[in-house]
């Protein structure tokens, strides 16, 4: 092999030395020329520049996947693989010749630089590291070294989110590129993405997105190191290791410099550095990159071009030949040679490849690039199918090709799906451009090109949608142009800057939309604030003139104007005069702000005084004096409800005139409460709850606002929730009574029903329903009806009000009532009928109905309220072998302190001995006037029935004696005030009787 460098010029130097521009200028100085470039993308760029100089009819573009060949074109732009083996052109140039040392493609570059020559001039363009090997292999070569036009400096390590504008972030895997792109989008508005696997059209579109200033960042693999002309000021390495097709390895200094050299254009300096998890570069490495001092390329990859097609074995042997010249090394098997190794083992290929023409056709088919990045065996299968068609039919089966093309012709899906379809269609684009492989190549060239373009555009759209915030990109471009941003506000408060939605104006507060915290946020806010300043003044004027119907106070303490929050309430010294805190940005200033605050305060005060008018009236009352004024003050402080027991002394001390003065403000003196009935409605109760919550920091306490819907639904009693704040029951108008809460006015109606039952005395006629012996009563259907409760609920309620129950059997109660009513009870039938009557009343009471909301009658004589307490209900143990005993009748009486103490002892006894509470109450009732519990008959003993009848007779006698005996001290009667309305009412009754 005799080589010569005569007529060959090597233009060597680092990036940004203008080598490619120089080659274009030299080529157009000749009448014809061919230039080979390492990438289809770069070939497209050079083709465009040549067309601008000499016209499209003079320039051809030839790549593996694309051919533009005007008739009699003088200049050809090719990828190195597509360059002709021999040419008659006057000028030949090969770019990036340092790739001759690449393990995968190096042998192709080596073959072209050693053998392809122009008639007049040959240029080899590349890095300065190629000088020694070129001078050795091509004696007589002319070497010209060009210095870098600008300086390249190391800038150290920076976080990705703090990289300067016009930066390129470099990584070496698609996953890492995508992750960085998404981070840049969230933090800085967006980034363009360049990957080697993208189609040239998609890469061009992404580069244009960056070049035109729509985004300020580019995330790419080392694909940008190959001659792409970019306006990059800084290159940051997010990775410094890559997979070279055989192993993961660190990039060498020359490779790092090739990528870092993209920073800076022409005479503008550039910087490089690291980011992410990459350690800062060592000083020696930094020095070598900045000064462009790298180890020289020692050997070039080589593969014999003297291919023997006589047989498959001869072909394989010729490809394995060793170079005869030092400085060259036999290349590792490339994709085409790997495919041949697989195909040479296929029986169907061995049977067909029997002539030199067929072997040559097989080697031509093996040149199909593996765009899909699949396994060598799968790639070989596809080549085998194509080769079989070529040998048997002379062309590829178009039905088979049509099916493959149809599968790729879909633009739906995400980035990875579209990338896979583009790789698929590029395979068939290559097939359509191979001479002699198709019967109608023009049709398939146009069809595959059109599909690839559509897929590329769809991929560009998906990449842009995923990695670019279009709003931010437009705004950044306008800012770089120093243009005034135009802002406008829609009727519903949407704020637009340059036609892009940037935020929402709610009331007097402006909120940027999510993702607006990038570098453009300040400019966007500045543009928006100019429009907001005028809008705030206009809104302030409209609010100042707004009617009360346009404003509303919600249960969370927010004041809303036409639905938007404009203020919130906070606690003050007076519970009914909360403070107003305006919710507005600083742009609402001076008089406009004062007018808004004043209008909201007027509304709040008017709303409170209207909804809580009875409470507001009594708080402002000037005709109340002494104890009445003090009671009114307490009523206001407690928001309209007082437990009567808490103010019992004050109430007793009130004379009739004071009572009358406070009653005219709607205050009711009930048996259990002093309250304002007008406030027991949903709207007042909701506002009262809010005022209390503001004063006591209770907006977040459990139960806030939960009881108002029950009040609005007309519920007279509800099951209590232990997790709720108890005060909320009182504020909503309910009395908390253990497991159940009852509306306050309904409790007063219950007191009105109980009072005559306790005032009735034996001998008075008629006996009211539920009256028993003048000291005790039974629950009636009307009581259950107004409470909307079951008998079990009734027990809880009465216990909660401080009443205690004595238990007697239905037969005993019937006999006692029959005697009180004067009905003979000797006959057994009569006794049984009376018992059935009592049981029927109990059954009827077990089906309650909803109670109404009628106002109860007042009775000022009920001065003392029973002590509030709660007890646990106990049930008898079930005995399945015996029929269930009938339910006892509960006789209710006001509790005493001794009952409370005794109840505690009984509960302790119950825990220790397991005795039923009902039995203890029955024994207690026998001692204090009730009937004792019935003893069980002693089964198996003679005379058991007689003993039972005798015990029952003794119990009746004790019951009768207890009914007549009262161990309470005689009640001291108060002198009756002759001027009281009750004295006058009693006198009127006496007159009516006469």
What does this structure look like?
The chain is α/β, with parallel strands linked by helices. Helices cover 44% and strands 14% of the residues. It has an eight-stranded mixed β-sheet with strand order 4-3-5-2-6-7-1-8, sandwiched between helices. It has a six-stranded parallel β-sheet with strand order 9-16-13-10-12-11, with helices on both faces. Helix 28 runs parallel beside helix 31 (828-845) and helix 30 (810-820) crosses helix 31 (828-845). Residues 825-879, 907-947 and 956-970 have low confidence and may be disordered.
- How would a crystallographer describe the biggest sheet? 8 strands, mixed
Query: Overall mean pLDDT score?
Result: 82
How large is the share of residues in beta strands?
5-15%
Instruction: Give the N-terminus to C-terminus distance in angstroms.
Output: 152 Å
Label the overall shape. elongated
Fraction of residues in helix: 40-55%
Strands across the major sheet, in which order?
4-3-5-2-6-7-1-8
Radius of gyration: 51 Å
- Number of helical segments with 4 or more residues: 35
Number of strands: 34
> What structural category arises from helix and sheet content?
alpha/beta
Unreliable stretches covering 5 or more consecutive residues? 825-879, 907-947, 956-970
